[in-house]
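Researcher: Go.
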Amino acid sequence: MPNDRCGDGSYGKMKLLAGNANPNLAQAISEYTGIPLSPMVVEHFSDGETRVMIDDNVRGTDAFIIQPTSPPVNETLMELLIIIDALKRASARRITAVIPYYGYGRQDRKTRGREPITSKLVADLITKAGADRVLTIDLHAGQIQGFFDIPVDHLAGTPILCKYFRTLDREDLIVVSPDAGGVPRARGMAHHLGVNIAIVDKQRPTHNVSHVMNIIGDVEGKIALLIDEMIDTAGTICRAAAALKDAGAREVRAAATHPVLSGSAVQRLSEAPITELIVTDTIPTDAEALPSMKVLSVAPLLGEAIMRIHSDRSVSALFGEDTSPTAR
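Model: Structure:
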C-alpha cells in the first residue's frame, strides 16, 4: 500500500535518483524539473553483485527513481529493485519507479503450456521491493497495468512522434501498422495526422521471427509511415518496409518509442528501404550509428508527469498539453 502523507497534505520534498540505465535522460529530466539528481553510488562487486549507496538524506521524501529496464535487462532490473529497497530502508515516504521502458513487457501471456508470465513476475518484484507507484511509457500491452497492485501512470509516446510528423507534407502520407496488434496505435496516429491507415498482415512462427503475408490497404504512390511501440531486432519493421515498397509505396518512414536495437538491428535498418527512422530516448541510443535515425526526447513529458504526481495534479491532462519534442 502507498505510504501515508505528511501532516501538511504533501509527500515531502521531491528527490530524483537515477541508476546507470539512462543517465542522459535522467539529467535532462533533472534540468526540466529544476531538481538536482541525488548523489548515489551504483557499482558492482567483482562477482557481479550490485551495490547501491545513496549519499543523500531521503527520509520523509517523495522519491522518483529514473531507471528503464533496458538492455542489459537483468542488470538494470536488479539495480532498480535494489535502489527501491535502499530508499524504503532509508525511510522515503513515497517511492515512484520511473520506468520509461518496461523490460519483459512482451512476456505478458501464456501462448503455450509451461510458459511463465514474466511481465507479471517483474511487476510483483517491483511492488514487493517497495515501490508505491510506477510511471512508464508505451507498455507492450496496456493490460500490463493490471499486473501491478499499485497505481501505474501509463504515458503515450505517440503524441511526441505525431508532433514531429505534423511538420511534414501529409498530402500523400499513410500510417501503417506492422501487425494487427498495433492497429489501435496506428489508428490513433492516423487520426491525429488526418490520414488513412494500412496494415501489414504477418505471421510469427517463433519469437523474433516474422513473415509478411499481405498488405491491407492501398499504399501505391504513398509515403508509408510505419509505427510501432518498439524496435528490437528490426526484422518486423524491415520486412514490412520491403513489402510496402513492393506494393508500390513511394517512400517508407518508420517511428517507434523504444529503440531496443538488439543483435543485427542497426545493420538491418541501414540496408532496409527506410528513408527516416524516428525514435525517442527512453533507451540510450547512439544516433550516429544510423544516419537515417533521429532521436526525440521524452524528458519534458516525464518531467512534467513527475511534477504533477508530486503535487497531486492530473497526469492524464498531459495529453492535451504541449510537450514539444527536441531532436538530437
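Model: The chain has two domains: 14-157+299-320, 159-296.
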